[in-house]
Amino acid sequence: MEELNSKHVLGTITGSDFKVGNELFVSRDIPSHPDRSEYDVTRYLVYKGSLRQFRMKKCTVYPMNYGIREEGKMYIYRQIVELEIAGVGTLTVGGLYFSIYESVEDYKNGKEYKLHFKHYSLETLGNVLGVKFIQNSCSICYNNGRYDPKRFFWNGTSVDCRTVTDLMPFSYEVTKNGISFHGFEPENYLDGYPTKEACESANTIKVCCFDEPKKFSIRAYETFSRTFEVEAANHEAAVEKVRKELESFPFEEGDSDGLCFD
After folding, report:
1. Among candidate residues 197, 195, 242, the one with its CA nearest the CA of residue 217
2. Which residue in 21, 89, 131, 140 has its CB near the most CB atoms, within 10 A?
């Protein structure tokens, strides 16, 4: 018989309490959670020297490969359970590491109650729950027996698909009324785009071309004038081309009062 131990009791959970592994993915080892029928039912547990009535109010599940480890505690939890305990009040515990009884007589006889748990198939996790976990801010991609959250990045000419490894403290909460998803706004700090299409529509291909020569009309004149059509990068280069043209084909007549260009 396991009593509810204070080492599993959690205080206020903060962002620094989240611990993450080297990768982030939805897989078969996702924690299950107590079935909806188990909430708000009066049962018994042992805590601080008394057999106490309690009710399980809700269970928060962190479905990826990370969990909660409160400062000063040694355990990482992927289930956080809120209990209402007679003579104590509301208590938040990590996991369900204690014995449960349906009556005082069951406690006396050592007859423990086994909670009914809800399990999901991998297909459901990846294709249904997976999308809700991340509020449509990633694409869930199947890869060797697991579902990885992906974001899409523009590399200048095309889309790169990368597995998300940043900490994303999203969760789902279970009560007697069902499952709800909450607690995560990924667009506030995740780089990239949730889908390939969104990435492509928000970006354009960077194209680098040679500078096309510009066309200039240069009038060269002494007493008489001649107009030249040349291509050059700028006006100075255009004038230089005309000078070379005049060296090969100089003015044929007329008094010169200085060669000029317009």
Report:
1. 242
2. 140
